[in-house]
Amino acid sequence: MDELTVKPEISLDPDDWNDIKTLGYQIIDDMVDYLKNVGDRKPWTPIPQQVKEEFKKCIPHQPSDIFEVYREFKQNILPYPGGNIHPKHFSWVQGTGTPMGALADLLAGVMNNNATIGDQSALYIDKQVINWCKELINYPKDGSGLLVSGGSVANITGLIVARNTVITNSKNAGVYVAAGKLTAYCSAETHNCIGKAAEVIGIGNQQLRKIPVTDKFEIDIDELKSKIKEDKANGFIPFCIVGNAGTVNTGAIDPLDELLQIARAEKIWLHIDGAFGALAKLVPAYSDRLKAIEEADSVAFDLHKWMYMQYEVGCVLFKNAAAHRAAFANAVNYLTAHDRGLAAGPETISNYGMELSRGFKALKVWMSLKEHGLDKYSAMIAQNINQAFYLGEQVQQHQSLELMAAVTMNIVCYRYNPGSLDDDQLNILNKELLMRMHELGVAASSSTLLNGRYAIRVAITNHRTRLKHLDEMIAGTIEIGDRLMKEYEAKLFKFDFLNM
Ligand SMILES: Cc1ncc(COP(=O)(O)O)c(C=O)c1O
Fold first, then answer.
1. Disulfide-capable partner of 94 in 84, 187, 194, 279 (CB 3.0 to 4.6 Å)?
2. 333 and 431 within one domain
């Protein structure tokens, strides 16, 4: 056992603290410049093959100089991000982060709290931030909540509590205790994390009823009512409705008031997936349509999306704090709270969720909200919504562009449509167009299919975006689309139906 007699004693701290200081100053200098000039770079740059090869190398056994490690980071990692800090990044629903948020993560890294247990500042800040999250959406003050990695886990956590609360003793006996198969309801446009939640809580994705949507991509209320009725008649146990405050594809808001009424009448849980859209509540024009969120049994939303905080941080809130706690609290000797000393802190946060170890994600939220104040965030969100409506109008003004769904919030779906192609051809053409937009650095939007039709999908949760960036994207779309049509006419571009 040679390893056990190693001497002298070692640690992972630097031999020379001045080196880490020098490197730290250098990193701050470089990163401030990097952020300041973010718009001068392309929104996305492909990773060269030789760089990808570097990422396949085996674990290093010997030490490297810290300056060399940083040099390698700058050479191989930093130049090839997903690009969501860029003003022309509109893919999926990704937030941008802020300079202060990055510094907060550095500070959290230095403190390196395990923000779960103990009488430590991190737990008090965590609680304060949860209270602020309630204030953000005007949720009841006596509700409870949890900061998690993001919307997916927030939604899953919501559904775990729903199952454990509505189905008495399911925590111990499992879903088998119910007198029939449990069913949950959401629109067909709902994010796939709700399907994952149905799998995780043991009801099975099949028992998640994906209700058809109207032409506005909102859940069809009549279909929902009749499905619940049919399920009941067939011995199923409806236990949860999931409403969307902003669907992932188009930003559609389900009729939340009606969902609330149905949930109350049927005595089932109402969970709202407000991953980004719940925050539109901060904009007066949306507060009425989103008011029912205040009454929902649980609501999930992200701070790393439309609050522009650094990844990762999402939040789930519960109206019934006792039910939230009951779903996760399990007394164990090694986590027992004491009267005094380190273990005298607030109750362990592990009593409110699946995680035991968790980082100090509340710090960046706390510092960012202090830096800017809530009103600035409301104005930022309103700005993104205005930008989306502006983009929708621009699309409608161009003959060769087609708006694919009404703009309701911050998402715009459109396609290039010269008028002479069928839907299948347009699907292929627009997919090629989007890939070229990425490669040429025009903008980084993502895509979706709406009723089987391929759409370029622009989600604006970006505090760096300006109208000129949207104008550039429109001009780039038309230019690439026109070029593709010329290539098609010259037989240089073919419709590859097999590869769609
Ligand atoms: C409506 C909706 N729900 C849930 C999620 C999942 O959130 P996250 O990516 O933070 O896990 C997303 C992500 O875009 C979303 O748009």
1. 84
2. no
CA distance 205 to 218: 20
The pLDDT of residue 345: 84
- Residue 177 and residue 112 share a domain: yes
Determine how β-strand 453-459 pairs with β-strand 444-450. Answer: antiparallel
pLDDT in tens, 69-113: 999 999 999 999 999 999 999 999 999 999 999 999 999 999 999
- Do residue 61 and residue 112 come from a single domain? no
Atom of ligand 1 nearest to the CA of 246: 1
Name which residue sits closest to atom 14 of ligand 1, judged by CA.
93
Is the C-beta atom of 193 inside 6 A of ligand 1?
yes
For 101-121, the pLDDT digits (tens) are 999 999 999 999 999 999 999
pTM: 0.96
Number of domains in the chain: 3
| Ligand 1 centre distance from Cα of residue 14 (Å) | 40
Hey, whose CA ends up nearest to atom 8 of ligand 1? 151
C-alpha 415 – ligand 1 centre gap (Å): 23
Question: What CA–CA distance (Å, rounded) separates 103 from 20?
Answer: 17
Q: Does ligand 1 come within 6 angstroms of the Cβ of 410?
A: no
